Model the fold of this input.
Amino acid sequence: MCGQLNGMSCENGYPAAGTGNGENARMPVAGYSVVSRGERGKEKSYMNKNKPGIFLILGVLLIAALGIGIAVGMSDGRVEEANLREDEPQEAKEEESPRQDGRQAGEEADVQQDKQRTEGEEPAGENVEQQAGEETAAGQEEQPTDSPFDMSNPVPDENYTAIVSYQAKRVLESENGLSKAEITVTMPQLTMRSAEAEKINEQLLDFYKSAFEYGISAGEQDERFQEESDESTGEDFHYDYTYEEGYQITLLNEQYLSILAQGYEYAGGAHGMPFRTPLIFDLETGEQVKGKSLFAVSKEQFGEIKLEAYKELIERSEEGTYWEDALSLVEESIDFDSGYYLIENGVTFYYDPYALAPYVVGFVEVTVPYEKLPLLNGAE
Done:
């Protein structure tokens, strides 16, 4: 092949140095490397010797790369977990905040109510709860176990929305069936829901319950009397005993409730007898008031005022209307605690039928204005 290279000498298959167009440097032949076989052998030998080290280095680099990737992933996970941990307390705080606000508001409300009680004011809210309790009580009235009145059937008063009534009734038949006794009692009650009103209602219940028990007792005695009369005389002597008691509201304002417990009792004869009992209550205390707890005058002054009022009444009346000694009877029977009731413009005194005049005259009444007979707490 060397001979084909234009006469250039060859050395180991390469043109000799300094040959070839007079150039000193070796010129590579097309398709051949400038590295000699020996050098290539050395290079190949070097590569063969260092193959394991190269692979080791690559392996180390690969492992390092994997380690770095894992480390980065773990780092990202820790960062995300840390962020979640930071968010959880914040969310917990946000959830707890309304509860803390509620507790704080409740504590402030308690402090405000304590302050109002100390200053003598009614705490706000309690009145609303009291009114809700009062309306419930008004719609769910419980009947006392020993009460003869049907408390589930209130009847509104015709003149006062603050008054309702309840009735108790009993009919007693005689053993021989020839007579009977009818007892009917109608009791007033306040619809106002307060401690004072409840106190008044309890007193009214006791009073009218006693009246009902009296009617039953009187009716039973009357039935026995009729039967004994039949046996002793041999004659039929029969009538129906009647006892009725109700009420009349004579005054109801912000200060006073004045009631006339009045009725009629018939136990034979030409006619029965009407009767009345005054009941006056202070709505601010729930107490029954009379005499010195009602009037702003002494007992002596009270007697003088009453006597003067009846003197004027008798003097201006027709002769024979009253008993001749009527004025003396008034003077002898002055009672600081009974015999009167309140109306809008004054105090009305009364005497039962037969006390100062014949039965036909009825109750003998006279009214004294509050200017002459003032009340302790005023009339209105």
